[in-house]
């Protein structure tokens, strides 16, 4: 059973998918690739993978590797993602989102939860403008809700963007790569949905991650959600009146 923060998301509705048309352009004929080796190296060194949860060793990150992370983000910021094909773009945006999230935590560490960041009246840093790409200032919410969700319209997006929290789908041990997107998305969905934080069944009671409540517009009706979950569950579930919860504690390990 997860130990939950008392903080509720009841009054904080998740952002709607709201397309930012500027980023809709792509170059289908492009064969150019983007190098994510620095980000992969940091994950290799600091991510601990366990059966139910991946955790990040924020406290152990060296000054040299913090500089490497900043350099990686500078490299991504210097690119125009619209010049790449759709798969390369998808990997770009997901890796950018996850790397930015880790940097936000490192810049403010130690912190017990990402929800503690973002200012006195903010619930987390998601609306802060963190990076400039093609002359546009972008926030984490811009990347997830104005680019990834409306352009790709794939519910599996929720399993690969990581919010540095124990309740969130895991930060993946392999960075997103354009040539393996579908396999990675399915793997991430399967891992999360079969974890206690994704779907927990106790007798006739089913407890789901609050992700499925917050993003009902993406997952559809209860019947549609059930179909989605049962694509990946090792034991099919029947949804009647599920409850929802989420653990906002930092996904750290000392």
Molecular structure report:
- The chain is an alpha+beta fold.
- The protein has one domain (21-25, 35-245).
- It contains eight helices and seven strands, in the order H-E-E-H-H-E-E-H-H-E-E-H-H-H-E.
- The chain has helices spanning 37-46, 63-77, 86-108, 140-152, 181-193, 211-214, 216-219, 222-230, and strands at residues 47-49, 54-56, 129-133, 136-139, 199-202, 205-209, 243-245.
- A three-stranded mixed β-sheet has the order 5-6-7.
- A hairpin with a 2-residue loop joins strand 3 and strand 4.
- Helix 2 runs antiparallel to helix 3 (86-108) and helix 3 (86-108) packs antiparallel against helix 4 (140-152).
- The longest helix is centred in the middle third of the chain and has 23 residues, at 86-108.
- The relative contact order is 0.17.
- Residues 82-193 form the DUF547 domain.
- This is DUF547 domain-containing protein.
- It holds the Pfam family DUF547.
- It comes from Photobacterium halotolerans.
Key phrases:
254 residues; alpha+beta; 7 strands; globular; DUF547; DUF547 domain-containing protein
Topology readout:
Layout: H1 37-46, E1 47-49, E2 54-56, H2 63-77, H3 86-108, E3 129-133, E4 136-139, H4 140-152, H5 181-193, E5 199-202, E6 205-209, H6 211-214, H7 216-219, H8 222-230, E7 243-245
Parallel strand pairs: 6-7
Antiparallel strand pairs: 1-2, 3-4, 5-6
Protein name: DUF547 domain-containing protein
InterPro entries: DUF547
Organism: Photobacterium halotolerans
């Amino acid at each position: 059973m997860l130990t939950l923060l008392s903080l509720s998301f009841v009054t904080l509705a998740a952002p709607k998918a709201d397309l930012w048309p500027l980023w809709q352009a792509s170059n289908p004929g492009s064969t150019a690739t983007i190098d994510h080796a620095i980000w992969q190296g940091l994950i290799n060194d600091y991510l601990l993978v366990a059966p139910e949860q991946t955790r990040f060793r924020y406290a152990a990150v060296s000054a040299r590797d913090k500089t490497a992370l900043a350099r990686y983000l500078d490299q991504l910021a210097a690119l125009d993602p619209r010049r790449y094909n759709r798969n390369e773009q998808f990997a770009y945006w997901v890796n950018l989102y996850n790397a930015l999230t880790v940097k936000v935590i490192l810049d403010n560490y130690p912190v017990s939860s990402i929800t503690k960041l973002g200012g006195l009246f903010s619930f987390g840093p998601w609306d802060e403008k963190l990076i400039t790409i093609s002359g546009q200032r972008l926030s984490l919410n811009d990347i997830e809700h104005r680019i990834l969700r409306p352009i790709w319209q794939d519910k599996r997006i929720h399993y690969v963007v990581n919010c540095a929290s124990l309740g969130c789908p895991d930060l993946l041990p392999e960075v997103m790569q354009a040539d393996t997107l579908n396999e990675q998305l399915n793997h991430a969905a399967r891992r999360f949905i079969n974890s206690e934080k994704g779907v927990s069944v106790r007798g006739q009671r089913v407890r789901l991650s609050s992700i499925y409540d917050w993003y009902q517009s993406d997952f559809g009706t209860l019947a549609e959600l059930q179909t989605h979950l049962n694509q990946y569950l090792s034991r099919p579930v029947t949804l009647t009146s599920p409850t929802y919860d989420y653990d906002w504690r930092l996904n750290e390990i000392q």
